[in-house]
Amino acid sequence: MEFDNFDTDSFLRDHWQKKPLLIRNPWRNWQNPLEPDELAGLACEEEVESRLICQTAKGWEMEQGPQHEDRLGGLSESHWTLLVQAVDHHVPMVADLIAPFRFIPNWRIDDVMVSLAADQGGVGPHFDQYDVFLIQGLGRRRWQIGPHCDGDSPLVPHEDLKLLAEFEATEEWVLEPGDILYVPPGIAHNGVAVGSDCMTYSVGFRAPSRADLLGHFVDDMLDQIPEDDLYRDPDLAAQANPGEIMPDALARLHRMTLDSLADPRAFARWFGMFNSTPKYAEMDWRPETPVEPDEVRQSIADQALLSRNPASRLAFVGDGADAVMFFADGACFDCGAETADLARQLCGEDALVLDTALASVDAAIDLLTQLCNMGCIAFEGED
Fold this sequence. Notes:
Residues 93-222 form the JmjC domain. The structure is a single chain. This protein is α+β, with helices and mostly antiparallel strands and 383 residues long. It has 2 domains: 8-205, Jelly Rolls (Sandwich), CATH 2.60.120.650; 293-379, CATH 3.40.366.30. Helices cover 24% and strands 26% of the residues. It has helices at 8-14, 36-43, 69-73, 92-95, 210-222, 247-259, 264-275, 293-301, 340-348, 362-374; strands spanning 21-23, 50-56, 59-64, 80-84, 109-117, 132-148, 171-175, 180-183, 187-205, 306-308, 314-318, 324-328, 331-335, 351-352, 377-379. The strands form 3 sheets. Strands 1, 2, 3, 4, 5, 6, 7, 8 and 9 form a 9-stranded antiparallel beta sheet that branches. The chain has a 3-stranded antiparallel beta sheet with strand order 14-10-15. A hairpin with a 2-residue loop joins strand 2 (50-56) and strand 3 (59-64). Helix 5 (210-222) packs across helix 7 and helix 8 crosses helix 10. The longest helix is centred in the middle third of the chain and has 13 residues, at 210-222. It starts with 7 loop residues before the first helix and ends with a strand.
């Protein structure tokens, strides 16, 4: 799917992480990529994360998936919403919704959550800590936008849901199929279905917190520091009061701590692996039968289409003039001149046909074979 009329530069300048924006159907030819029954079927699968949220006389209730067919079939005609996470991992046409938003770096993309709501269904007024594009797929939904919120904003007491105790709408729209609402982090919003079979596709983006970056990076560095790397002070001099921690000692301790975190290349390697770890790392996408290098060579020679698994996360960092650190689902591959361009291609395109010359490049065949056997990529015709 593609946008027919959307000004990326003005959006990034005026709205991205600044203020909401209603985008009336910008698609060249909008088509809803998933039927309600298909979404309900996904919600019943064990490996798919889902939630059912109902508004009853007792208040808001949430049921974690997997859902049960009888439960979904017996729902009332109003005031419920079914939320299914990472639908793009399982439905290629939903994964295609991400393509028009590639002006945001891939490493920021989280997933596409899909909601199906009955009349008056919603999840209540809330705010998120991430950017989201809310695409109306089917039916109609009334969206209300409120003020900026933070960790101090009062919430309704609830063990499962984080609903705002106070919400006053400042803007309101009804979205039709193909319309998009962009909501920046921290902005209160509330969506309510207008009629039945209301489907919304939430293209969500992620941003690591300072605590996550520091905590995970330090944990990784600790594994690499030898036990005998201890504080040393061979130039120690007598001091007037033995109870004082002297400024030069503090400076040395501070430097000792920060030096372990100060290598930009080490940070780049760690972050690439950390950030490319799949959202659902327990999912096994590997082929039933391992792919052999000769099969990869033949696929390249046959000009077979190479596609990326929508659940995989690929990225690269430049590592000198002709080299890159290439990251795939938490693994790092050091790619020199022979494979750097291939790595860039794999990161930049969801599907491509490779140059037949690569069939004679052993390093490229080795990289592609490993990626196929990890389940990151597959040639057309492979299981």
